[in-house]
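can u do me a favor
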């Protein structure tokens, strides 16, 4: 993992809100991504640029601009603060919902259905 030498500690500009965001660790924010995940992200970026350029060549520049506009609009839509956004619409437009990739197999533990989501849910379960 020689590529990790360029990583540095993130700059903290405000105190952490543990009740809303849960406990955080700088270790997870400075770790490198898995090589398979990096290869899949590079392949996706190349496929997207190929799709945009193909649409521009076949249908004209307006089709490429519409693809870019759809992507930017759906990437801006998010849930309320404190709730993670799933970006389901963006996944449908980019056709990421039809493929099984690295994150589907080794998903982060906060997406597990068995694990409580936050401090509020843990306290509600303890207090009844």
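np, heres the sequence
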């Amino acid at each position: 993992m020689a590529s990790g030498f360029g990583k540095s500690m993130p700059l903290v500009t405000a105190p952490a809100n543990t009740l809303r965001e849960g406990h955080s660790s700088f270790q997870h924010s400075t770790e490198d991504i898995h090589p398979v995940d990096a290869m899949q992200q590079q392949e996706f970026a190349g496929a997207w640029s190929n799709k945009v350029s193909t649409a521009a060549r076949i249908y004209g520049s307006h089709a490429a601009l519409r693809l870019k506009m759809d992507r930017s609009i759906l990437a801006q839509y998010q849930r309320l603060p404190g709730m993670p956004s799933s970006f389901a619409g963006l996944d449908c437009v980019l056709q990421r919902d039809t493929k099984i990739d690295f994150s589907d197999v080794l998903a982060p533990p906060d997406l597990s259905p068995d694990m409580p989501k936050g401090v509020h849910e843990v306290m509600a379960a303890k207090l009844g």
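The chain has seven helices and no strands. hope that helps!!
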